[in-house]
Design goal:
This protein has about 350 residues and is an alpha/beta fold. Helices cover about 25% and strands about 25% of the residues. The two termini are about 35 Å apart.
């Protein structure tokens, strides 16, 4: 089969690799019908995630069909259409029993496209399939469903739930990429008073308005002052970091009010300074986290009911064999206005921006 393989920082290729097969009785093999690219994949290509060994097939999000299932798999069978979660769960270890699937110690956690071959391929082996794939309702299109493998659960759990967004809150989201936009959309479920989006790309600030931000600010135009002006000088109740850069994290800590919460979602490849000389007296709570995907079943039901803005997130589509081109478009989002790119379907599809 063909797959997109990481060969070291700055090196990757769409190339022939061995077909995956069931290795354990809890495995399933999925034919990939739709896959997307995550900002974390870009971090891997830059060398920010050194745990990924050269030769690894990238990707941790997919929709497809079960083609083979091990003898111990009970929840799905060949022919079922499924969502492949970005997080794999053994279901037995301490962390899985506490719904902290991202910290699984039984051979799960974030392993696809990280520690084992991932989903940016024609087929993928999924360990612990009973708890790591989700049967899909027939009404949910592939390009919508694939967004629930990672970005919506990540934004909702690590940003909105960890940040304890409440009715009447002022929420600031720093970074209006796909995860930041999903954080805006899911924060609105809790009826905050206002949501303020911060980014440096005009196209993403426009997208933030479409996804529900009440105000936007260019990162170069004193966003902390805007937040202060809108909150009588207090600062935001919740600030969600959705970039993964030292500058954005430090901006978040300047924007939060005393007693407020900073929820870090971004993947950081460089150290960030924690200004405890300023923060120690402010009663600020800072949370970090890897998504656990415990919310995926709920989000799937909401998406099937049309309650999540999944369709407007996809700006470009490609066939699988144009993976390198899709990476280029997604990696130059400031120029291409790409939000999410989805790959799959026939070889004759072309990249068409969504309306």
């Amino acid at each position: 089969m063909k797959a997109f393989v990481f060969h070291g920082p700055g090196q990757s290729a769409w190339e022939e690799v061995p077909d995956p097969a069931v290795k354990e009785p809890t495995d399933a093999v999925v034919r990939v019908d739709a896959v997307t690219i995550c900002g974390t994949d870009l971090h891997i290509l830059k060398g920010d995630v050194p745990e990924v060994p050269p030769g690894t097939v990238l990707g941790h999000e997919a929709v497809g069909e079960i083609v083979e299932a091990g003898g111990d798999v009970r929840s799905v069978r060949p022919g079922d259409r499924v969502l492949v979660s970005c997080i794999t769960s053994c279901g037995r270890c301490r962390f899985c029993r506490e719904r902290m699937y991202g910290q699984c110690r039984g051979g799960g956690g974030w392993i696809l496209g990280h520690l084992i071959d991932g989903t940016q391929a024609e087929y993928v082996r999924v360990p612990h399939a009973d708890l790591s794939v989700h049967a899909l309702p027939g009404t949910l299109a592939n390009r919508d469903a694939v967004l629930l493998a990672d970005i919506f659960p990540t934004a909702y759990e690590v940003g909105v739930l960890n940040g304890h967004v409440r009715p009447g809150d002022t929420v600031a989201v720093v970074g209006a990429g796909p995860v930041g936009l999903a954080a805006i959309a899911t924060a609105r479920l809790f009826s905050p008073e206002r949501i303020i989006a911060v980014d440096l790309a005009p196209a993403r600030l426009e997208a933030a308005h479409r996804f529900g931000a009440d105000a936007v600010a260019d990162v170069h135009e004193a966003p902390a002052q805007l937040v202060a002006d809108l909150t009588d000088g207090l600062g935001a109740d919740v600030v969600i970091e959705a970039v993964g850069a030292p500058e954005s994290f430090e901006l978040c800590t300047r924007m939060v009010r005393p007693g407020g919460r900073v929820a870090n979602v971004g993947v950081h490849g460089r150290p960030a300074t924690l200004h405890l000389e300023d923060l120690w007296i402010k009663d600020v709570t800072i949370t970090t986290g890897l998504v656990d995907t415990h919310s995926t079943p709920t989000l799937l039901r909401m998406a099937a009911a049309g309650r999540l803005p999944t369709a407007r997130m996809v700006t470009h589509t490609f066939p699988l064999n144009r993976m390198a081109e899709a990476y280029d478009v997604f990696g130059r989002a400031g120029e291409t206005a790409a939000l999410k790119v989805v790959l799959g379907g026939t070889q004759h599809e072309v990249a068409v921006p969504a309306a």
